[in-house]
Design goal:
Helices cover 42% and strands 22% of the residues. It has two domains: 2-120, Rossmann fold, CATH 3.40.50; 125-224, Orthogonal Bundle (Arc Repressor Mutant, subunit A). The protein is built from nine helices and twelve strands. Strand 11 (214-217) and strand 12 form a beta hairpin. Helix 7 (154-165) packs across helix 9 (189-205). The radius of gyration is 19 Å and the shape is elongated. The protein has helices at 11-21, 34-41, 60-68, 84-93, 105-120, 124-127, 154-165, 173-181, 189-205, and strands spanning 2-7, 26-31, 48-52, 75-79, 97-100, 129-131, 134-137, 142-145, 148-150, 171-172, 214-217, 221-224. The strands form three sheets. The protein has a five-stranded parallel sheet, sandwiched between helices. With 226 residues, it is an alpha/beta fold.
């Protein structure tokens, strides 16, 4: 059974989507907040996301952008807007497809299946991130160094994935907090320091020269030096 995360501020729409989708073998997780959905993705593995654009607080655009900073999960935007500019913006921001309300049930399901097929059709080489015998696999959420698996929490994995994707980029603590926990979270900067410390210890324990690459930028944050 595949898991779909439904994000929409209207409970009625969430219930309607679940009514359409669940009979076709989908487990539905419903969420009315983009910020809460981002936190949930740290705990739940989902196969696809249906995301509304017009939401109060964190809108669909911001939610999409934030998710794309740490995850390649397939995302279909579902909205009442049908402007060509919106469609282009969706795809450029990282959405895999776009469906307008009111939508046809069969069309929505067909688009979901097509997006999942395209995503599953990627080879391991397409998704694997490698650096000096260190490899991380976003599809299995596993980290290996010289074929030895290194256990990681979801937050540690997300940090390492972000660093390897954007090597030599300096990330402020505030940026890392907003990326991993969502906007306006009640989490202190030292939480990031604690996760970085744990990440370093785990990599160092397996013999990876993490201190040569994961650098502290004093007064700002962290970067991964290649």
């Amino acid at each position: 059974m595949k898991t779909v995360l439904l994000i929409d501020d209207e409970k009625r729409m969430l219930d309607l989507l679940e009514l359409y989708i669940s009979p076709y073998g989908y487990k539905c997780i419903k969420n009315t907040s983009g910020q809460d959905a981002i936190r949930l993705l740290d705990e739940e593995k989902v196969d696809i996301i249906l995301l509304d654009i017009m939401m109060p607080g964190m809108d669909g655009w911001t939610t999409l952008k934030k998710i794309r900073e740490f995850s390649n999960v397939p995302i279909i935007m579902v909205t009442a807007r049908n402007d060509k500019g919106d469609i282009i913006k969706c795809l450029k921001t990282g959405a895999d497809d776009y469906v307008s309300k009111p939508f046809d049930e069969k069309e929505l399901l067909a688009r979901m299946e097509a997006v999942i097929r395209r995503t599953n059709g990627k080879t391991a080489e397409d998704t694997l991130l490698s650096f000096n015998d260190l490899t991380i696999d976003p599809t299995t959420v596993e980290v290996h160094f010289k074929s030895i698996k290194i256990p990681m929490t979801p937050k540690e994995f997300a940090l390492l994935e972000l660093f390897l994707q954007y090597q030599n980029k300096v990330f402020s603590r505030e940026h890392l907090l907003s990326t991993l926990w969502g906007l306006k979270v009640d989490t202190e900067d030292r939480t990031i320091d604690s996760h970085i410390r744990n990440l370093r210890e785990k990599l160092r324990k397996q013999g990876f020269p993490v201190d040569d690459h994961l650098k502290t930028v004093w007064g700002i944050g962290y970067k991964w030096s290649s």
